[in-house]
Amino acid sequence: MSKNNIVIREIKPEDNAQIERVIREVFIEYKLPLVGTAYADSETPNMFEAYNNINEVYYVVTVNGVVEGGGGLKPLSRMDSTICEIQKMYFSSRIRGKGYGNKLLILCINKAKSLGYKHCYLETITKLKTAIHLYEVNNFKHLKGPLGNTGHYNCGVWMIKKL
Questions:
Q1: Mean pLDDT, the chain, integer
Q2: What is the dihedral of CA 122, 47, 52, 106, to 10 degrees?
Q3: How far apart are CA 68 and CA 109, in angstroms?
Q4: What is the pLDDT of residue 3?
Q5: What is the C-alpha to C-alpha distance for residues 28 and 56, in angstroms, rounded to an integer?
Q6: Given a cut of 80, is residue 152 above it in pLDDT?
Q7: Cα 145 from Cα 53, distance rounded (Å)
Q8: Which of 21, 42, 139, 161 is least enclosed, having the fewest CB within 10 Å?
Q9: Mean pLDDT, range 78-83, rounded to an integer
Q10: Tell me: the pLDDT tens digits for 95-133?
């Protein structure tokens, strides 16, 4: 990948179809539940529009101009406004294991701090061991149950980080 031009940037409207493809590919690849997860979210096909409000952002990772991953944050639904949720962090198999998950997570954490959030919350699926490890090494702590109202009832791992 040394000849590839890899960029992490904020999402643009023309990225919607590509990041939707990446998200859906990951669910199929890992045989994850399609309901009660990001796969079925109405915002998944419209990520630019879904993260176009105050105090939220979505980033994409591009390789030679092609979206191969992404992740973002927004206020956690039905919770204190000082808690954001890291959301929809998915990467194609083509770029996994190269450190972009960590770079993107740190970017999101720093953005959350700059927006005035005091905590970052996230949910994931037990089967995604590498993702859980990434969150643990970045000092996210496990919770006994979910916070807010994400609608992701098939996520069995809930974590939070104090900023």
A1: 93
A2: 40
A3: 20
A4: 60
A5: 27
A6: no
A7: 27
A8: 42
A9: 86
A10: 999 999 999 999 999 999 999 999 999 999 999 999 999
Gap between the terminal Cα atoms of the chain: 33
Q: Is 130 helix (H, G, I), strand (E, B) or coil?
A: helix
Residues in a beta bridge with 119:
83, 162
CB atoms within 10 A of CB 5: 9
Q: Please state the pTM of the whole predicted model.
A: 0.93
Strand partners, 75: 84
Q: Residue 163 has which token pair?
A: 């900023």
Q: How far apart are CA 53 and CA 76, in angstroms?
A: 13
Phi, psi angles (nearest 5°) of residue 93: -60, -20
User: Which amino acid is residue 84, in one-letter code?
Assistant: C
**By CB neighbour count within 10 A (0-12 exposed, 13-18 middle, 19+ buried), where does 137 fall?**
exposed
Question: ∠ CA 19-20-23 to the nearest 5 degrees?
Answer: 85
What is the H or E stretch that residue 73 is in? Answer: strand 66-75
Residue type, 124: T
Nearest to 19 by CA among 91, 81, 110: 91
> What does R_g of the chain's alpha carbons equal in angstroms?
15
